[in-house]
Amino acid sequence: MFKYPTLICLLLLVHSISFCQEVWVKGRFETDTVKLGKPIDYYLTVTYPKDKSVLFPDSTFSFAPFEFQKKSFFTTKTENNVSYDSVIYTLNTFEIDSIQTLALPVFQLEKKDCVIFYSVADSVFFKKMVDAVPDSLAISQLPLKTNTAYNPVNWLLNYPLALIISGVLLVVLVVIWILFGKRIKRYFAIKRLTKSHSAFIGRFEQSVEGLKNSFTPESAESAVTIWKKYMEELSSRPYTKFTSREIREAEKGELGQALHSVDRMIYGRIVPETFDSFQELKAFTQNKFNQKLEEVKHG
User: Fold this and answer.
1) In the 3-class helix/strand/coil scheme, how is the chain assigned residue by residue?
2) In the chain, what are the domains?
3) Does the pTM of the predicted model rise above 0.90?
């Protein structure tokens, strides 16, 4: 079919080479020698078109005969539509080969696949710490112990020292309590009071919001019950057993209109035009909370 198959193959080869040359990868060690277990840095750099994306090997990659310790990245530099990236790998080796070689790849991301570009392999010389290692030793020359069985040793407690430390700690705690006991109790009382108030606000507002979305006398009663239980905890009065009239009397006439409106919802099963009565209950509770908080702070 083709008259010049050799020419076509050469053109395809030239095109492939020119494509591959868009990415240049270079890798090298910082030194030409390495010691057993000692870290050595390996520099890997890549130059590529800025519209491409490349990835470096991570810690899951096999760096054999070396082992990965860490890596350091540098910020990408771009000039004249060409980007430059580099990374330093800190490696070590536990192999004793006299020459150890490494070549790392860089991965160029494509839409459906990736292209791998390897650096030219670089080598380091292994520097021995011991010139000659004997193949074996005679048993008589080994530093063996005649008895390696475990001998239990009784654990001894330094009772005088333990008593001194315990006494010092006890004295310190007593002094701290004498000096700061009231402050400590006040701090935890305020924290407990604030936490309880925040929890009430959340439950009460959620109940009222549900009442607005779907009114029922039962949901109105549930919201009032939440309010009564918290007021009982805050003021140490049996609000849950009080009627609306008894609450008005206990609070010297306050909340009269709000409680009357709530009673109409619960017992008269009347849907109100607004739910401002619950906001009055909330505002009343907030005022009582502030008073209680000031009492605790200055009590």
Assistant:
1) CCCCHHHHHHHHHHHHHHHHCCCEEEEEECCCEEECCCCEEEEEEEEEECCCCEECCCCCCCCCCEEEEEEEECCCEEECCEEEEEEEEEEEECCCCCEEEECCEEEEECCCCEEEEECCCEEEEEECCCCCCCCCCCHHHCCCCCCCCCCCCCCCCCHHHHHHHHHHHHHHHHHHHHHHHHHHHHHHHHHHHHHHHHHHHHHHHHHHHHHHHCCCHHHHHHHHHHHHHHHHHHHCCCHHHCCHHHHHHHCCCCCHHHHHHHHHHHCCCCCCCCCHHHHHHHHHHHHHHHHHHHHHHCC
2) 19-127 (2.60.40.10), 183-297 (no CATH)
3) no
